[in-house]
Specification:
This protein has 17 helices and ten strands. It is α/β, with parallel strands linked by helices. It has two domains: 172 residues, Rossmann fold (3-Layer(aba) Sandwich); 197 residues, Dehydroquinate synthase-like, alpha domain. The chain has a six-stranded parallel beta sheet, with helices on both faces. β4, α6 and β5 form a beta-alpha-beta unit. α9 runs antiparallel to α10, α9 packs across α12 and α13 crosses α14. The longest helix has 21 residues. It is globular. It starts with 14 loop residues before the first strand and ends in a 7-residue tail after the last helix. Bound molecules: nicotinamide-adenine-dinucleotide and zinc ion (ZN).
Length: 392
């Protein structure tokens, strides 16, 4: 038998920038990031802008046009406005239009696609860019709390299929991510606040000091004080990006996925409510569930578990929803099927992260369904006992 094993090593830059007013005259963040690779080359730039953001910033399209007319070396191909939110991931309509635009404007692998929008819109346009010509350069401008503090700085994209989240998708490191804080403050208040759940999540699995800071600032965060919100978003984004860059498994080939703490049930809750529950609300309940499970299996103290539940409640996030009560024909909670689907999505052995401490995780390979029942009931009771804390 003949054959050789080759090692292909890749070194990829993951460029993350924080700014305000990226398209303001004089803001050099983007201009510095985009290279036109030599004096004689002109790179095309095509922009996809989510409709809700275009409405919140009516001058933005003109500002972007002016921005590119002011810097040499770019062939600006326009701004295409399209619909976002979870709806855009449900079918291939927006994806198709992304491919159409890339083809019509003859965007190539030396061009740039800029995407400005929430996490769902970034996922669709990102997948379109990653698959057109086997990958054109993508610069993401996340515009929600959740996309700035988590998904936008990640390396994944995708759309939903077969009733499952992100069934179609790819791993693709964006050319750059620009977190422009100006976008944060036009989101509806509930969306601006709920995206902080991913900051709580990443603090719990990586950074105890950040968790304490979030606790200390919970009231300001609830009130959406801009400076505190921006600091939370930036610290969370850095934690996510550091894990991806330095955690040793950026494309998730192994089974351990600490950034998916609380997500096995979250994805299932989103699915069984047909996305009536947002990703953030579902993650909050998933984090609450796996935190209490960590306590009930002796990994963390009751007091620490309650600290986690309390901060979620203080941020106006839910611990429990009626969706937990849906049962299949055998009387089993539907949400529990999320464990097997999570395993299937990852492949290999079931691996779920539990808390060993606040700021530290531990992988386990089995969860006890009876104990999960107990934890769900605990969170239902805890939420109703602390009803006054939740101001929704
Ligand atoms: N790729 C990944 O690694 C990854 C990770 C986590 C989550 N996600 C995905 O991200 C999606 C959730 O993202 P999200 O929480 O940003 O929600 P979203 O994209 O649905 O946006 C929330 C709402 O805010 C609106 N909006 C966005 N920016 C706005 C702004 N600046 N002003 C006013 N309105 C604005 C949107 O139109 C939408 O109605 C889910 O599909 C989830 O699966 C992906
Ligand atoms: Zn998430």
């Amino acid at each position: 038998m003949n054959g050789t094993d080759y090692t292909i090593s890749l070194e990829i830059q993951h460029r993350i920038r924080f700014t305000r007013g990226a398209f303001d005259h004089g803001n050099r963040t983007l201009a510095t990031l985009l290279s036109n690779e030599g004096e004689n080359k002109v790179a095309k730039v095509l922009v996809y802008l989510e409709q809700a953001v275009a409405i919140a910033f009516p001058q933005l399209t003109e500002q972007i046009e002016n921005y590119f007319s002011g810097i040499p070396g770019f062939d600006f191909r326009g701004v295409r406005v399209d619909v976002g939110a979870e709806e855009c991931k449900r079918n291939e309509k927006v994806l198709r239009r992304v491919w159409d635009g890339i083809e019509e404007e003859k965007v190539d692998r030396h061009s740039y696609v800029l995407v400005i929008g929430g996490g769902a819109f970034l996922d669709v346009v990102g997948f379109g860019a990653a698959t057109a010509h086997r990958g054109v350069r993508l610069v993401r401008f996340p515009t929600t709390t959740l996309s700035q503090d988590d998904s936008g700085v990640g390396v994944k994209n995708g759309i939903n299929a077969f009733g499952k989240k992100n069934w179609i998708g790819s791993f693709a490191v964006p050319y750059a991510v620009v977190n422009d804080f100006a976008f944060l403050h036009t989101q509806p208040e509930n969306i601006r606040r709920e995206g902080l759940v991913e900051a709580v999540k990443v603090a719990l699995v990586r950074d105890a000091a950040f968790f304490s800071w979030l606790e200390d600032n919970a009231q300001f965060l609830y009130e959406l004080k801009p400076a505190v919100l921006e600091e939370a978003v930036e610290r969370s984004a850095i934690q996510h990006a550091e894990h991806i860059a330095e955690g040793g498994d950026p494309f998730e080939t192994g089974s351990s996925r600490p950034l998916d703490f609380g997500h096995w049930s979250a994805h299932k809750l989103e699915q069984i409510t047909d996305f009536a529950l947002s990703h953030a609300e579902a993650v909050s309940m998933g984090v609450a569930l796996d935190t209490v499970y960590s306590w009930k299996t002796g990994r963390i103290s009751e007091q620490d578990a309650h600290r986690v539940l309390d901060i979620l409640l203080k941020l106006g996030l839910p611990l429990y929803d009626e969706a937990f009560e849906r049962r299949d024909e055998n009387g089993k909670r539907e949400v529990l099927a999320g464990l097997e689907e999570f395993r299937e999505h990852l492949g290999g052995e079931l691996t779920v992260l539990l808390l060993r401490d606040l700021g530290k995780g531990e992988d386990v390979h089995q969860l006890d369904e009876c104990l999960l029942d107990v934890c769900i009931e605990h969170n239902a009771a805890y939420q109703s006992a602390n009803d006054s804390v939740v101001v929704k």
